[in-house]
Specification:
The protein is α+β, with helices and mostly antiparallel strands. The protein is 54% helix and 15% strand. The strands form three sheets. The chain has a five-stranded antiparallel β-sheet with strand order 2-1-5-4-3, with helices on one face. A five-stranded mixed β-sheet has the order 7-9-10-12-11. A two-stranded antiparallel ribbon has the order 6-8. β4 and β5 form a beta hairpin. α8 packs antiparallel against α10. The longest helix is centred in the middle third of the chain and has 51 residues.
Length: 463
């Protein structure tokens, strides 16, 4: 089933995306916290290892006599193959005596300290101790590898955190696509059902998840609704069908009674009144059966591509004399022409019902307009009047069978005209809209334009 393009703001509102994002963020925070702990413990262990080396070297040099201390420091420098350990000896007033380590800053004794900017070694961790003679022994350790390792671990930590966040949101996005597509399919089906297609069913997959459980429940409900509606419609249609014949016989008897009344004026008047009432009932039954026929039709065998202007012109030609007799000005259709695919006879019937309603409800001195408005891929057939119109609350109710407005008691009609129009529009898959005509009522039929037809047939149905 086709569906509209999915948008990010719709995807991020899905429960799948939110749950994935929540669990993913919790997992990412746990991973980041673990890496941070590993980083902190590794940094602490490397620093402690350096301090142990410094204290070990300091203990060895502290046991050397003052006279042999300079030579011992120089010997340690020569034997330091890695070059990571540096040694220095300063007098008690800070003068350099021996070694390759010079520190200008004051250092705390017996406490390793990080310093930088010492010759070519950057940075260093230095331990200062005082010899028995008062001289200052300096032992330094190049911690550049440790600093570099810390930076690398910190970079890995940041990269991992960012990658986890992107992965979580990406996974949430991908995992939300399939459920949201299924929800779109369910929405599309529900709109068809709401439009009257009770034969449609919610799509059910083989997963058996919560959406399938919901779809199955809704399908069972729709089946029951379809059964009840079919029973009610069947009873209504059966009554209308079964009563037409005896009522037609009664009408025939009344007509016969009129002919043999033998000048009895009172009897003729009563028979004619009863005949008129029977005609109203028969018209209502005929409209009911017509609606049932349209709703059960569901076929497109009679569909052709026709000109919208030709349909409106035919309706104008048919109803213009009737409008003139009723004191209503019926305006010729205006707007650009367009081609649509439809059953011209049925669509002409719908337009005729709308024009007839406009003439009846507008009243003497009113106006009724036939309009064509071509949009991008749709054409709007409009019938607008400047009569009393319908308030917003009544417009949907007006499409129901037998609905009559509170101010229409003196206007003839059965309340089935718009129901017939709605059935025809639904059969074609078009949209029917009742809107404010400012003043009056605007009834619009929105049809799909036949883009592939360049020269529509001027199919004007017989009237």
């Amino acid at each position: 089933m086709s569906f509209e393009r999915l948008r990010f703001h719709e995807i991020r509102k899905t429960s799948t995306f939110r749950l994935t994002a929540l669990l993913g963020v919790v997992f990412a925070l746990g991973v980041v916290a673990l890496l941070a702990l590993i980083y902190a413990l590794s940094a602490h262990e490397l620093t402690a290892r350096t301090d142990r080396i410094l204290r070990l070297e300091a203990a060895r040099l502290q046991s050397v006599s003052a006279e042999a201390l300079p030579d011992r420091i120089n010997a340690e420098i020569r034997h330091n193959a890695s070059g990571l350990t540096l040694f220095g000896l300063q007098s008690h007033d800070g003068e350099h005596v021996a070694g390759n380590l010079r520190v200008g800053a004051d250092l705390s004794f017996n406490r390793p300290t990080n310093i930088s900017g010492q010759l070519m070694h950057n940075p260093l961790r230095v331990l200062a101790i005082r010899a028995a003679t008062g001289e200052i022994i300096l032992i330094g350790r190049d911690i550049s590898p440790i600093i570099d390792l810390r930076h690398r671990m910190l970079g890995i930590l940041v990269f991992t955190g960012v990658a986890m966040v992107l992965l979580v949101f990406g996974a949430g996005f991908v995992l939300s696509l399939a459920p949201l597509r299924r929800v779109r399919d369910l929405q599309a089906t529900s709109r068809e059902i709401a439009a009257g297609r009770l034969d449609r069913r919610m799509p059910v997959s083989k997963r058996g998840d919560e959406l399938d459980l919901f779809a199955g429940t809704v399908n069972a409900m729709i089946e029951e609704v379809e059964r009840v509606v079919a029973q009610v419609k069947g009873v209504t249609d059966a009554i209308a069908h079964d009563l037409r014949t005896p009522l037609a016989h009664v009408r025939g008897h009344l007509q016969r009674a009129i002919t043999i009344a033998d000048g009895n004026t009172q009897m003729i008047t009563l028979a004619k009144t009863a005949t008129a009432d029977l005609d109203v009932v028969l018209d209502r039954f005929a409209a009911l059966l017509r609606i049932s026929e349209l709703e059960a039709r569901g076929r497109h065998a009679g569909f052709i591509t026709v000109s919208v202007a030709s349909l409106l012109t035919a309706a104008y030609d048919l109803y213009e004399p009737l409008a003139e007799d009723a004191g209503v000005r019926l305006h010729r259709p205006d707007g650009p022409d367009a081609a649509i695919t439809c059953d011209p006879n049925l669509l002409f019937e719908a337009i005729s019902n709308l024009v007839d309603n406009g003439i009846k409800f507008t009243g003497v001195g009113g106006d009724v307009w036939l309009t064509i408005d071509v949009e991008a891929v749709r054409v709007v057939i409009g019938v607008r009047d400047n009569g009393p119109g319908l308030v917003a609350e009544e417009r949907r109710a007006a499409l129901r069978r037998f609905y009559r407005g509170v101010d229409t008691g003196g206007i003839p009609g059965s309340g089935l005209g718009l129901s017939v129009v709605a059935a025809i529009v639904h059969l074609h898959g078009f949209d029917l809209e009742l809107a404010d005509g400012s003043p009056g009522l605007l009834v619009a039929i929105r049809c799909s334009v036949d883009l592939g037809q360049t020269s529509p047939q001027p199919a004007i149905p017989a009237t």
